[in-house]
Each structure stands twice: as structure tokens, then as C-alpha cells.
Design a protein that fits this description.
Structural class of chain A: alpha+beta
Strand order of the largest sheet of chain A: 5-6-4-7-3-2-8-1-9
Shape of chain B: globular
Structural class of chain B: alpha+beta
Strand order of the largest sheet of chain B: 2-5-4
Oligomer: heterodimer
Order of helices and strands of chain B: EHEHEHEEH
Number of strands of chain B: 5
Helix content of chain A: 40-55%
Distance between the termini of chain A: 43 Å
Largest interface: A-B, 23 and 21 residues
Number of strands of chain A: 20
Strand content of chain B: 15-25%
Strand content of chain A: 15-25%
Radius of gyration of chain A: 37 Å
Shape of chain A: elongated
Largest sheet of chain B: 3 strands, antiparallel
Number of helices of chain A: 27
Radius of gyration of chain B: 16 Å
Chain lengths: 871, 113
């Protein structure tokens, strides 16, 4: 810049001197023809035209000069801005707030919502399930036969793979047990996810030959926590309770598919044509494959399967879902809402600064008139004004980036730290690019309106009005009013949007799960060791544990269950046949629970009775069903008289069970999926079935913080079985973890709403204060003629009220429309929700009122004599 | 000022400026008067537009400039042709003559059908 200004100085002086020389020479030539020196000078000047215009023209014809003009404009802009520090401070801080907030929020959204998965090209990942198109029931899982077909290179699929869960307990050096989440994965699974192993070769082709060696890849977490990051871990042996297996690799740090996996085994198929549907399927599609294309091609595959295997595969269809949806829920609504809110926020900031500039521009009419008279082209003036707004926007952007950096740390402290991979929100290239984009948008957005106002066709009219130039032009007032209307409308939309998200979040969070999370712990354990192989021992051990836990201080109730909500588990899907039904079987989830489970979880009994200690293996098998079950399968029948049988893949007639009660629905899969038809069985009647090894024990307490009990529980368990692996956590943490992203979104929106209100208030305040100041002499005259302060107050407040109402009406209209679009994504929220709309209106109007009344109040208390004299 | 003066055609100013410099360096005022005088006061040079033209030519490296002293001891910037400018002048002059002849022929044909 220094060099640039030096060059500019040199050429400008050069050109000045040259022009002067020209004028001197020309004057002389006129003198030689007999004119007086004065007349000669005049003639020379006339012949030359405007020296400034010439200089401008000379400069503009050169790209380098253009840059110099820009540097000059920048210096001029700085001068102008320094001259009005209050204006500059207001404009820069508003822009900083706008750019800072949007950048901060973008960087969090970028990390949490835009790139929610750490896998390369995760957008090409899909989960695949199957279903029957004829209404028959299936587990929804994938069979090896289907996997073989999906890996056909003719399909738009780069790779297909499956996984299946196992239970395993690891024995650490001193024989301390640790329960592992283990999955067996088919060939190509790691390539499909796309993260190479951190250490070791991983699974090779030999591992996928039939009867090849079995090996494990351990997770980065397990490697760090249990093996201390031992660099020589590959080649060593993993000691499991059941088996010893060679470690062939450590997975990448971010590799977490299926979620929470500690150990991956290689999955070998005895029969690749097997139709056992028991695997979770994954696809990586070719980049750019459209959902319709994929669907059509898979429909063809399914048809072929149905032809070749008419028994198990007839009428089967593939169900494809984006992987990200399966992993973190559907984040699109949050993303769309948050990002549009970001845009609106920046819009608000721009409108505010544009308002300030417009108000100032009205006072600068004279300056512009003089500049035009001196030969500045219209383009030149527009450029000068745009340069000023660029300077403002740059200052705002720099401050804003700083604010964003700090803001992100604060946001992380507040809400986001629980999200995996969000410990550090990177300030990466995309964030900087985003901030740069914001800068350009705001510079143009802020500068254009006043530029058009001042340099547009209206300029002459403005000049004619120059007698009133200091009081601003009528068109300026109209522009200001329109902007305020827009601003209030935007504020209404933002606050309403915040309202919906909060409502949606509350709907998800409160009581929606169907059980009570406060004051409760969940203890997960897996009785896989040989000593629990005998069901009787398993039963006895569990009863002892429950009794011990029940005896602890503060514990109200304790119960055991085969599954726990929010574990995203697909287990327990069974076919059901109701007695006396002509229809074929239906499907429902089975949960095995101990007596007192419903009480301990806060699940309400709707009809009949709960399980008791009298429901034993020797008594009649009983079941309790949930409301969804009754609604879907027992419509119009009395559930208390119904009997059912279940089984998979066929109904087992020996399972004849009497329904004895109905309980309220509980959401097992996730908070946003509806509860499924479920039946509960009594634990003491099912010990003989194999699936009672894994248990989730709920400990209900009357403590505010149930985690205080965790140390005591640990002691209890280790005295009962020092080799048993278990995990214990508060149920609230479980719910919070599943809602972490949603909570982040709501936090962001609350922040947005607040900032939007503040910005709108500042904007309204500024404009009303400006408009009131314009009318000071009118006010003074009226007061001198006998108007009371309250007359004046209402006179001035009326203009605020009109724009406020116009803005509010517009805003409610837009909000309603936007809400219609968004309501599909919100959880049980209607865009016409009167409570939200009313609260929004009340809040925005209150803020508007405040922002109007302060400047109006001040204006109505002026001393008329003082004001008139200053005119 | 006489009424039979002609405003310069767009683009011809550059050519005229180059031509006036063919016999040696001149300052801006000299260029303006030279055009006016050699054209016997028919061509009107807008003095103000001369300087942007000079800058344009200098940037195109057709002329270069240096400070010097005028006949009456006034410091002034003198412009002179570069070799490139000389070539351009020859080329443009040929073009110009071709065009003038062509235009003249067309006009004559129309005069006497």
C-alpha cells in the first residue's frame, strides 16, 4: 500500500505538472495572438476542459491506475470513517456481530452437520435392508446370497459388505474382564468405509477364504485404553474368554462402524448362496449415482433373486438409506433451518449498516453534488461509496472472525463438547472462504443501496432538494422504513423458527421416550462366561445382584431387562400369531423383563397387571403388550383374553402365551422413531432361552444425582464376579447423547434468535432516532405552539408503530409459509402453532416498542427554544 | 472559431499523435498545436482528451516520454516515437490510405451513377 500510494503520488504530481505546463503554453500562445494574460488563461482553461476529469479519465484507463484509485478511495474512506467515529463503531460492530455469529455458527455446522461423518465421501455410503413387498414379515436384514448379488460389478455400487454382532469378553493381562462390542465383517468392509488401518495390514484375502484363519482388527480406542498404544501390538494375541485370536491391525482413530465396535472379526461364509437374513448391509455407491437410478437397478436385482430363488426371495425388495441418517439421524432439517437462519442474520446486520449508511448518505448529498460538479463520473461516486462499504465490511469481517473464534470456544463449552470429533472445531479453509463470502455479500449489500440513492438517477432530484439536504430526502425515509419493515419481518421469522425448534426439541426430549430418565442408572452386563451357561445359575446370580442393588441406600427400584431404549438395537424381532386369527402372522419386538421393570422405568400400566415374582417357569406363560401392539394388532378385541404364539423364522407353537396386561409405549430405537408393537415376557419364564445373557439393569433412585451410587455398584459387582465386564451410566446421559446434535441446533437457534432481536432493535432504534432528529425543528415548533410532550410522543411513536405492525404482519405471513415447509422436519410441531406465533409476536413487538420509545421519549422532552435557535 | 472544423473521428487521434511525433519529440501542447496547424485548423483537438490518449499510447509502448524544457524555458514532458510506434504508424497510415481511397471510390460511384 505504501508503494502504491507513493506511485500514485508521483504520477498524480506528474500529470498535474504536465497539465499546468500545457495550460501555461496555451496561455502564452493566446497572449502571442494578442489576448490579455487573464483572457488568455481563461481561453486555455476553456479549451482544456476539466483538469480533474482529465486526470480521472487518464487514471481509469489504466489497470494500475485503477488500483491506485482504489488505494486513494480506501484512504478517503478511512478519512471519512475517522471523522464519524460513532457511526463507524456502530457499523463495524454490527457487521462484526453479523459476520462473527454467522461464521461461528457455520464453522460448528460445518463440523457437526455438514461433515457429520469422518469417512471419505461418506455421502456415497448407504445402509441396505430388505423387506417383502407383499406384506410378509422379515427381519429386514440381508442374506449372504443378496450380498453376492449386490457385489455384481455391473451395478452402480463400488462395494457391498455386511456385518453381524457378537458378544465377546476380553481378558486383560491380570485377568480383568472387559466386555467388547464385536462385529464380524465381510470381505471389503474396511475398504467400503474407506479408512485404512492405523497399524498393521488388516484383513487380507486369506482371511476370507472358506475355513481360512480367524483374526481381529482392534479399535483405536481399545488399543489406546487397554494396550496403552503399544506400537508392537500387531501380531500379538487377543485373549478372549472363548478364544485367543491374532491381532492383524489397529483401525483408524475415526473408524466407528458399526458404532461402538471394539473388535472386528473376519466373517467367512460357509455358503455364499445362503438365504439366512441376519446381517446388516452396507453399500458404497459410485459417486454421482442418483437415488432413483440405484433404486431401479436394485429393483432389477431383487427381481432376479425372486426368479432364481422363488421361495425365500420372492417379492423381496431392497431398502436403501443414506448411511449418515442411520448413524446420526436426519440432520437435514437442522442444517437447512440453521443455515437459512445464518443468512437471515447476516441480512439483518447488512440492513442495519445499510440503514446507517443511508441516513448518513442523506447528509452527504452536498458532498456528492460538489464532487459531480468537479467532474466525478457517476461510476466514480458509486465506486467511492462501495469502497467505503468494503472498508467497513473488511473491518467487520476481521473483528467478526475474531468474535467467531472466541464464540466457537464458548459454544463448545456450552453445548457441543459431548459430540464426538467436535472437541476441536477446525478453523479451516471452508470457514475462511465462508467468512470471505460473507464479507463480499455484506459489502455489496451494505454499499449498494446508498450508492444507488446517491449516484442513481435520483441524484439531480436530490440536488434540487439540497435546501433540505441536511434533513434527508423523502426517498431516503421511504427506503429506511422499508428496511425496518423487512427487519422486523426477519426477526419474527427467526424468533418463530427458534420457537419451533425449541418446541420440537422439547417434544423429543420430555416424556416422549415413554419412560423417565431422571434419577436412574443403567447397568449393562453380559453373562457370557462359562459359569453362567446354566440358566439356573444365570437366574440365581441375577436375583442376587438385583437384591443387593435394591438394598443400597437411595435405591427405590431395580429391574432387569434384555434390551434398553436408545441403544439403537435391532434385536428381538419376532413373528407373532394370535390365537383364533385367520390372518397370517405379524411382527413385533420381544423384550424380556424382570418383575418391577415397568415401575423402575416409570412406564405406566394401562390395563391388567404387571409381572410378579409368581410368574415362574412352572406357571402359565404370560406376556404384556404395549399400546402400539393393541392398536395395530388387537383392534377391537379385548387384549386381556388374547393368547399368542411367537418365533422366528417360524412360529413356535410351544410358545403359547397369555396376555395379561397393557403398558404405555416406549421408544426403543430412537426418540424420533415411533414406538413399535412390542410384547414383554417375564424373565423368570424365559431363562431357558439363550438370549438372557445380555442384560440391562435399571436402578431407580430418589437421588438428584444417581451417579453417586456408581462406586458402590462397582464394589458390589466385583465382589460377586471379579471377571465380569460391565458398564454403568446415568439414563439422562444416554438420552442427552442421542440428542446432542439436536441440542446443538437448538442452542444455535436460541443464539440466532437473540442476536436477531438485538440487531432488529438496534436497527429500529437507529432509524427512529434518525427520523426523530430530522423532525426536531418541527417538534420544537409544535411545542412552541403549545403541543404537550405527550402529543409529541404519540406523533413520533406513531411512525414506529406503523412500521412495527407492517413488519410483524409480513413476518407472520412469511414465518407461516416457511413453517409449512419446515414442519415435515420438525417433531410434532405445526407452523400455525398459536402459542409460538403469539409468543413470537409479543416478544418482537415488545422489543420494537422499546427500541422506538427510547428515542421518541428523548425527542419529546427537548427544549424547543434550544432546538429552534440551533436551526 | 470557424464553423468548418471537424471533430476527430473516433480512433484517429492516436494516429495523428503518432504522426506529429515523426520528426522528433514534442510536448503535449506542441502535439495539439501541430495537429491543428498542419490540418490548417480544420481538425479540432480537444486538449483535455489529448492526455488520456498520450497515456494510452505510452502504456502501449508506442511512445515514451521524458521531462525536458520547452522553447520558452517552461518544464514540460516531451513525447517521442518508439520503434514499435514507428512501425505501428507506418502500418496504420497504410490502412488509413487504403480506407480513404476505398471510401472515396464508393462516394464517387454514388455521385456519378
Amino acid at each position: 500500500v505504501k508503494l502504491l500510494s507513493w506511485m500514485r503520488w508521483r504520477t498524480d504530481r506528474d500529470l498535474d505538472e504536465e497539465i499546468n505546463a500545457h495550460l501555461d503554453l496555451d496561455t502564452q500562445s493566446h497572449v502571442e495572438r494578442g489576448l490579455t494574460p487573464e483572457a488568455a488563461r481563461q481561453a486555455a482553461l476553456r479549451r482544456f476542459g476539466s483538469p480533474i476529469g482529465v486526470k480521472e479519465q487518464a487514471r481509469e484507463s489504466d489497470p494500475l491506475f485503477n488500483l491506485e484509485t482504489f488505494a486513494g478511495d480506501v484512504r478517503y474512506a478511512f478519512r471519512m470513517l475517522r471523522r464519524t467515529p460513532a457511526f463507524t463503531l456502530a457499523a463495524v460492530s454490527t457487521l462484526a456481530l453479523g459476520i462473527g455469529a454467522t461464521t461461528a455458527i457455520f464453522s460448528v455446522a460445518n463440523a457437526a452437520l455438514l461433515r457429520p461423518l469422518p469417512y471419505p465421501h461418506w455421502e456415497d455410503l448407504r445402509t441396505v435392508r430388505t423387506r417383502f413387498t407383499d406384506g410378509k414379515v422379515t427381519s429386514g436384514l440381508v442374506a449372504p446370497l443378496e450380498l453376492t448379488r449386490l457385489n455384481d460389478p455391473g451395478l452402480p455400487i463400488e462395494r457391498a459388505a455386511v456385518s453381524v454382532r457378537f458378544d465377546a469378553t476380553l481378558l486383560i493381562n491380570d485377568n480383568t474382564p472387559r466386555s467388547l462390542v464385536a462385529y464380524a465383517v465381510s470381505s471389503g468392509f474396511f475398504d467400503l468405509i474407506g479408512l485404512p488401518t492405523a497399524l498393521g495390514p488388516g484383513f487380507g484375502p486369506e482371511h476370507y477364504r472358506t475355513h481360512g484363519p480367524v483374526a481381529v482388527v482392534i479399535s483405536h480406542r481399545l488399543w489406546q485404553e487397554t494396550f496403552g498404544g503399544d506400537p508392537g501390538i500387531v501380531g500379538k494375541t487377543l485373549r478372549l474368554v472363548a478364544d485367543n485370536l491374532p491381532i492383524v491391525g489397529v483401525a483408524a482413530r475415526d473408524m466407528d462402524v458399526p458404532q461402538g465396535t471394539d473388535v472386528w472379526f473376519n466373517l467367512q461364509f460357509d455358503d455364499t448362496q445362503s438365504v439366512s437374513h441376519s446381517f446388516d448391509g452396507y453399500l458404497r455407491v459410485r459417486p454421482g449415482t442418483s437415488p432413483e437410478f440405484l433404486r431401479n437397478r436394485l429393483a432389477v436385482v431383487a427381481e432376479g433373486l425372486g426368479r432364481d430363488f422363488p421361495g425365500p426371495e420372492a417379492n423381496r425388495a431392497f431398502v436403501i438409506q443414506p448411511f449418515v441418517q442411520a448413524m446420526v439421524g436426519d440432520l437435514r432439517p437442522m442444517l437447512v433451518i440453521v443455515l437459512s437462519a445464518t443468512g437471515l442474520l447476516l441480512f439483518l446486520a447488512c440492513v442495519n449498516v445499510a440503514n446507517l449508511l443511508l441516513a448518513r448518505a442523506a447528509r452527504r448529498t452536498r458532498e456528492m453534488a460538489v464532487r459531480t460538479a468537479l467532474g466525478a463520473s457517476r461510476l466514480r461516486i458509486v465506486r467511492q461509496l462501495l469502497t467505503e462499504s468494503v472498508v467497513l465490511a473488511t473491518a467487520g469481517a476481521v473483528t467478526g472472525l475474531l468474535l467467531a473464534y472466541i464464540g466457537v470456544r464458548v459454544l463448545l463449552l456450552y453445548g457441543a463438547s459431548k459430540l464426538p470429533r467436535l472437541e476441536t472445531v477446525p478453523f479451516d479453509m471452508s470457514v475462511l472462504l465462508f467468512a470471505g463470502g460473507m464479507l463480499v455479500v455484506s459489502a455489496v449489500g451494505v454499499g449498494l443501496a446508498p450508492a444507488i440513492q446517491l449516484a442513481g438517477p435520483g441524484l439531480e432530484r436530490l440536488l434540487r432538494e439540497s435546501g433540505r439536504a441536511l434533513r434527508g430526502a423523502r426517498s431516503t425515509h421511504r427506503a429506511l422504513r422499508m428496511m425496518i419493515v423487512a427487519e422486523i419481518a426477519v426477526a419474527v421469522v427467526m424468533v418463530a423458527g427458534t420457537g419451533w425448534l425449541v418446541r420440537s426439541f422439547m417434544n423429543l426430549h420430555d416424556g416422549n421416550a415413554g419412560f423417565v430418565d431422571r434419577g436412574r442408572l443403567v447397568l449393562d452386563l453380559s453373562l457370557v462366561s462359562d459359569r453362567y451357561r446354566d440358566p439356573a445359575r444365570r437366574s440365581a446370580w441375577t436375583h442376587t445382584l438385583l437384591d443387593r442393588l435394591r438394598a443400597s441406600k437411595g435405591v427405590v427400584a431395580v429391574a432387569s431387562s434384555s434390551d434398553f431404549p436408545m441403544r439403537a438395537d435391532t434385536a428381538g424381532t419376532l413373528l407373532i400369531q394370535m390365537d383364533g386369527w385367520s390372518e397370517s402372522h405379524v411382527v413385533a419386538r420381544r423384550r424380556v423383563v424382570s418383575p418391577g421393570f415397568f415401575d423402575a422405568m416409570g412406564i405406566r400400566m394401562r390395563r391388567g397387571r404387571a409381572f410378579t415374582d409368581d410368574d415362574r417357569s412352572t406357571t402359565t406363560p404370560v406376556a404384556i403388550v404395549n399400546e402400539s401392539f393393541v392398536r395395530k394388532y388387537l383392534d377391537g378385541r379385548d387384549p386381556m383374553t388374547a393368547q399368542m404364539s411367537y418365533g422366528f423364522p417360524r412360529i413356535n407353537p410351544k410358545t403359547r402365551t397369555q396376555i395379561v396386561g397393557v403398558v404405555s409405549d416406549v421408544k426403543y430405537a430412537s426418540l424420533w422413531n415411533d414406538a413399535e408393537p412390542t410384547f414383554y415376557l417375564a424373565q423368570d419364564q424365559t431363562w431357558a432361552s439363550a438370549d438372557t445373557a445380555r442384560q440391562s439393569i435399571v436402578v431407580s433412585t430418589d437421588l438428584d444425582d444417581p451417579s453417586a451410587l456408581i462406586p458402590a455398584i462397582r464394589v458390589d459387582l466385583s465382589t460377586m464376579d471379579p471377571q465380569l465386564a460391565f458398564k454403568v451410566e446415568p439414563v439422562t446421559a444416554l438420552i442427552a447423547a442421542t440428542l446432542a446434535r439436536q441440542k446443538l441446533g437448538v442452542t444455535l437457534m436460541l443464539l440466532f434468535g437473540a442476536i436477531a432481536l438485538v440487531l432488529a432493535a438496534i436497527g429500529i432504534y437507529g432509524v427512529i432516532a434518525y427520523a426523530s432528529a430530522e423532525r426536531l425543528s418541527e417538534v420544537a415548533t409544535r411545542m412552541a405552539l403549545g403541543a404537550t410532550p405527550s402529543n409529541i410522543f404519540w406523533l413520533l411513536a406513531r411512525q414506529g408503530a406503523i412500521v412495527a405492525i407492517a413488519g410483524a404482519v409480513l413476518g407472520v405471513g412469511v414465518a407461516y409459509g416457511a413453517g409449512q415447509l419446515a414442519s415435515a422436519w420438525l417433531y410434532k410441531v405445526r407452523s400455525s402453532d398459536p402459542v409460538i406465533l403469539a409468543l413470537t409476536l409479543a416478544l418482537v413487538l415488545a422489543v420494537t416498542m422499546l427500541a422506538t420509545l427510547i428515542p421518541v421519549g428523548r425527542a419529546s422532552r427537548i427544549d424547543p427554544a434550544l432546538s429552534l435557535r440551533s436551526e | 472559431m470557424t464553423g468548418d472544423r471537424i471533430k476527430l473521428l473516433q480512433g484517429t487521434l492516436d494516429l495523428l499523435v503518432l504522426q506529429t511525433l515523426i520528426f522528433g519529440a514534442r510536448h503535449g501542447h506542441g502535439v495539439a498545436t501541430a495537429i491543428q496547424e498542419t490540418s490548417e485548423e480544420v481538425l479540432l483537438v480537444d486538449h483535455g482528451s489529448l492526455y488520456p490518449a498520450l497515456q494510452r499510447l505510452e502504456r502501449a509502448k508506442l511512445i515514451n516520454s521524458a521531462w525536458g524544457t520547452s522553447d520558452n524555458n517552461r518544464r514540460a514532458r516531451f513525447y517521442s516515437l518508439t520503434p514499435k510506434g514507428r512501425r505501428r504508424l507506418a502500418h496504420e497510415t497504410t490502412n488509413w490510405e487504403k480506407m480513404v481511397r476505398a471510401v472515396a471510390r464508393v462516394l464517387k460511384v454514388q455521385e456519378a451513377p
